[in-house]
Amino acid sequence: MVPFLNALLLGFLAAQLCAFLNTPLPWMIGPLFTTAIFRMAGVDLRAPVAVRESGQWVIGTALGLYFTPVVLKVLASYLGFILAGVVFALTLGTFCGWLLHKLSGVDRTTTFFAMAVGGASEMATQSERHGARVDRVAAAHSLRIMMVVAIIPFCFKFANLHGQDVFVPGAKVVDTMGLIVLIGATSVFALFLKRMRWPNAWVIGPLAVTIGLTASEVNLSALPEWMVHFGQLFIGISLGTRFSPEFLHTAPRYLASVALTSSVAMAIAALFGIGLSMASGIHPATAVLATAPGGIAEMSLTAKTLQLGVPIVTAFHVTRMAALVLTIGPIFRFTQRLIRA
């Protein structure tokens, strides 16, 4: 309990400092970097699984409130572009896996799963089944997410990229009884999906339930702002405490190669996002966030903070995540057959 309370206190103080300095995503970026630095310095900081899941619940529920009937009609018109984004993400991950192999000299299986644009836990599980080095896969995903979370929001803020999002949540007022019902319904479905071994169950479950309610114009309650802040704080310390003193001792050439490959991935994704924007009419910054090699929570939170098409960014990332989980095994086997041919 003490290591968690220490992580929570450090994260909270870091969030307050970042908010004072007006940095982007202060309630996530501050805790993430602070706990990561202290962890790599040898301080015992921990974030229990329940903490990460609580943060994911908040984000999933908050995002689901945007999916009104009007928003769903808009998203339906973008379906072809969303599918193009999925194909792009799968192709990008495969290419970056090859590039990481060439740069680092690490085996192809490990680099393939290390660069797949998916969640760290899901890709670590998949990589273990196929004989990859799980520790290096996890290290690569931790470093990639940290780079994406640090670079993209700061670039957007430096360039003064923000919008006036036409999409607003269906529920705009906090209602105590409605909030209790919302918490209960979303948590029950999240627990069900977790039992069914769904990836990101505590994001997808609340997101699905809240989308269903909002699309049906059942607006139980908005989420209090403090709850959204603590959700980001919990995600930040959960990401930061993944780092450890051993992380710094991971093969320097490998980590440098991951950093370079992740930078290439972000650059290619940004170019694709700009092209997608030109073809679809989506705001360029929204399209870049929608196609960035980051996680659902991180990119959607950036969109929410900068008022840049939250439902569009969320739809792109959720669809990509689902497609990746379903197809990563067949894609890996297909690429292996191509190599041997």
Automatic annotation (TrEMBL):
Entry GO terms, CC: membrane
Keyword Transmembrane: yes
Entries under InterPro entries matching the protein: AbrB_dup (IPR017516), AbrB_fam (IPR007820)
Residue intervals passing through the bilayer: 75-100, 143-161, 173-193, 255-279, 308-332
Any Gene Ontology biological process: regulation of gene expression
Pfam families reported for this sequence: AbrB
Keyword terms: Membrane, Transmembrane, Transmembrane helix
Keyword Transmembrane helix: yes
Protein name from the UniProt record: AbrB family transcriptional regulator
Organism (species): Noviherbaspirillum galbum
